[in-house]
Amino acid sequence: MPTVQIDTTKPLAVVLTFHSPHAVAYRLWYKHPDDAKYTILATGTDSEPSNPSKHTHMVNALPSGSELVYLAWLSGNGNTPYRIEITLVQNGLPLPGGTFVEEGSTDAEGFAQEKNTISLAG
User: Fold this and answer.
1) What gap in Å lies between CA 13 and CA 91, rounded to an integer?
2) How far apart are CA 52 and CA 70, in angstroms?
3) What is the DSSP letter of 22?
4) Alpha carbon distances (Å) from 100 to 35, 110, 116
5) What is the DSSP letter of 92?
6) Residue 37's Cα: distance from chain center in Å?
7) Per-domain boundaries in the chain
8) Mean pLDDT value across residues 76-91
């Protein structure tokens, strides 16, 4: 699990950028260190013709040891390339080591899934 250093006193923006013509559904979760379950931060879809398209979601300050999870499902033509960027931002600036790139091609039926869990340290 990758770890990103954050300022635990500031809100965190999660910016998803989709560089593909695919329809996308996504979900973001976060979990404080003492929580037993994850909390949904955002659920969304992207079927806009703009390429790239960008979606920003904010979460209040998180303590060190929190986790952030993203999951994206893509659907479109089979065997077509996609690129997704997930960037963690504070104070209007991307965090060092806080950009995650998921790229590949959909399967023969036109589907793909990307998921990652990120540890946040203060």
Assistant:
1) 9
2) 18
3) S
4) 25, 23, 9
5) T
6) 18
7) 3-121
8) 95
- Residue 93 and residue 66: Cα distance in Å, rounded? 20
Structure tokens at 95: 């965090």
Place of tokens 């540890």: 119
The per-residue pLDDT for range 92-120, each reduced to its tens digit, is 999 999 999 999 999 999 999 999 999 99
Contact (CB, 8 A) for 3 and 118: yes
Tell me the DSSP string of 23-78: EEEEEEEEE-TT-SS-EEEEEEEE--S-SSEEEEEEE----TTEEEEEEEEEESST
CA angle 11, 13, 14 (to 5 degrees): 145
Q: What's this model's pTM, rounded to 2 decimal places?
A: 0.93
CATH class of this structure's domain 3-121 = mainly beta
Is the separation of the CB atoms in 88 and 10 below 8 Å?
no
Cβ neighbors of 48 (< 8 A, separation 6 or more) are: none
User: Tokens 């398209």, residue?
Assistant: 53
